[in-house]
């Protein structure tokens, strides 16, 4: 096991000191976007909502991060260890334009889902979403399900981005029940499949909540859903306009996205524990939110031993003023390899198929995003325009194979038409800074999100 780097420790200690010395917690946003309680008349017991996300995207090259040289001479090991296959993302799901491997190359299991468009410009139905929320009239109980339809090219190997035929994936993203047992306290207990509790980026998972189109380079570690038990508790400190919150969970797979670790069952029989401590300051024109997160438990991409663990640490911050929102997050990831903890052959059972090894893996990185709503001489309820930009950096290491460092600059515009339509367009500039071969993998992508 490799210790956390010096930079990780300094960032972690600085945020921890800030949390303990002045302020008291995050949480203005409930642990799921679907759980906000609206003032006014009591809502109907059953509420059905949803959205349709229609995209258009064009990626450079063949839509992957694999360089043309890999087609002549594949790397001496899994191709996805030597590049970042998540980089050419095209939608809010983080799907790459393609994950087609070069001929003769192998994969180690660190691959995203694919939109299957390669380097060709294409329209996409990114997601068709239906949400059902039932609030029991006689008890403080909420039941929520989120069902999504995702039409894609048929992909028999889950690695070839341009396989023939059409296929539709029916995906149950969330399904949980929640109870608020104490009328005098802000306590909610959820059981089922729900969003991550790690960090803040999971709050923007859905296209109708996200100001931009694509997630960050770190989202693969922190924005997945999993099945288990979760508790959310918040204390309001009204005299100082603040709140402290604690969000904890025990789940099958933790916060990794389902393309990396399947959430449907525990492969080791031991849960992954995660939690976030937050502080929130709400003033008349300024809102500041800080948080510190941690996660530890067995890797759910192997079934041999619970001693092959994953450990995540993170800090996050959000600053919101009347028209400007600035947010950011730092994440440090450590995954122990199967050979470190077991003398047995360790098969890799990942969400995208069977792979030959459980590789030792480390990663750390950060993202920072700013979004400014333009002051237009029109009613913001009818039309609004927001400019946004994000910078992110990711360092990843397979100690026995490769060390790579990449970054990305994203810029775009979001046009809102009432509550029912957002039109977004953005450009992603992906750069290989160290270790990974240079490749043309920038992306233009856009999205029209129709909410009902």
Question: How would you explain this protein's 3D organization?
Answer:
The structure is a single chain. This protein is mainly β. The protein has a single domain (about 5-35, about 50-450), classed as Porin, CATH 2.40.160. Helices cover about 5% and strands about 45% of the residues. The protein has four helices and 18 strands. The strands form two sheets. A 16-stranded antiparallel β-barrel has the order 1-2-3-4-5-6-7-8-9-10-11-14-15-16-17-18. It has a two-stranded antiparallel ribbon with strand order 12-13. It is globular, with a radius of gyration of 21 Å.
The CATH level-2 architecture is identified as Beta Barrel
Strand order of the largest sheet: 1-2-3-4-5-6-7-8-9-10-11-14-15-16-17-18
β-strand percent reads: over 45%
- Overall pLDDT, averaged? 87
Rg: 21 Å
Low-confidence stretches: 1-30, 32-39, 155-164
Tell me the CATH superfamily.
Porin
Going by helix content, strand content and strand pairing, the class is mainly beta
Distance between the termini: 48 Å
Q: How many helical elements?
A: 4
Helix % is under 10%
What's the structural domain tally? 1
The main β sheet shows up as:
16 strands, antiparallel, barrel
């Amino acid at each position: 096991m490799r210790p956390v780097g010096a930079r990780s420790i300094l960032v972690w200690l600085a945020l921890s000191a800030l949390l303990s010395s002045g302020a008291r917690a995050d949480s203005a946003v409930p642990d799921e976007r679907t759980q906000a309680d609206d003032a006014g008349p009591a809502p109907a017991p059953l509420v059905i909502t949803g959205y349709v996300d229609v995209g258009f995207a064009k990626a450079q090259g063949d839509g992957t991060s694999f360089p043309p040289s890999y087609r002549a001479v594949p790397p001496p090991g899994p191709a996805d260890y030597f590049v970042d296959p998540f980089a050419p993302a095209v939608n809010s799901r983080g799907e790459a334009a393609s994950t087609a491997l070069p001929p003769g190359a192998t994969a180690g299991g660190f691959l995203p889902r694919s939109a299957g468009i390669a380097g060709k410009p294409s329209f996409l139905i990114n997601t068709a979403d239906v949400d059902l929320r039932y609030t029991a009239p006689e008890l403080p109980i909420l039941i929520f399900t989120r069902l999504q339809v995702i039409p894609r090219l048929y992909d028999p190997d889950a690695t070839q981005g341009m396989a023939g035929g059409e296929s539709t994936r029916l995906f149950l993203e969330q399904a949980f029940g929640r109870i608020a047992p104490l009328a005098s306290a802000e306590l909610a207990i959820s059981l089922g499949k729900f969003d991550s509790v790690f960090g803040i980026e999971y709050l923007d998972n859905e296209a109708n909540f996200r100001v931009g189109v694509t997630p960050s380079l770190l989202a693969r570690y922190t924005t997945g859903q999993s099945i288990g038990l979760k508790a959310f508790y918040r204390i309001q400190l009204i005299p100082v306009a603040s709140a402290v919150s604690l969000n904890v969970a025990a789940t099958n797979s933790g916060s990794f996205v389902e393309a990396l670790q399947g959430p449907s069952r525990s492969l080791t029989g031991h849960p992954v524990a995660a939690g976030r401590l937050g502080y929130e300051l709400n003033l008349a024109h300024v809102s500041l939110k800080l948080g510190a997160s941690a996660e530890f438990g067995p890797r759910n991409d192997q079934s041999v031993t619970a001693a092959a663990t994953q450990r995540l640490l993170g800090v996050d911050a959000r600053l919101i003023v009347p028209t400007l929102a600035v947010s950011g997050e730092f994440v440090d990831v450590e995954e122990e390899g199967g050979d470190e903890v077991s003398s047995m052959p360790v098969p890799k059972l990942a969400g995208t198929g069977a792979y030959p090894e459980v590789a030792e893996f480390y990663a750390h990185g950060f993202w920072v995003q700013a979004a400014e709503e333009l002051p237009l001489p029109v009613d913001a309820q009818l039309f609004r325009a927001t400019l946004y930009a994000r910078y992110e950096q990711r360092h990843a290491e397979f100690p026995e194979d490769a060390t790579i460092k990449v970054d990305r600059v994203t810029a775009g515009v979001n046009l809102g038409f009432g509550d029912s339509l957002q039109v977004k367009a953005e450009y992603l500039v992906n750069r290989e800074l160290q270790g990974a071969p240079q490749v043309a993998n920038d992306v233009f992508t856009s999205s029209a999100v129709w909410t009902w």
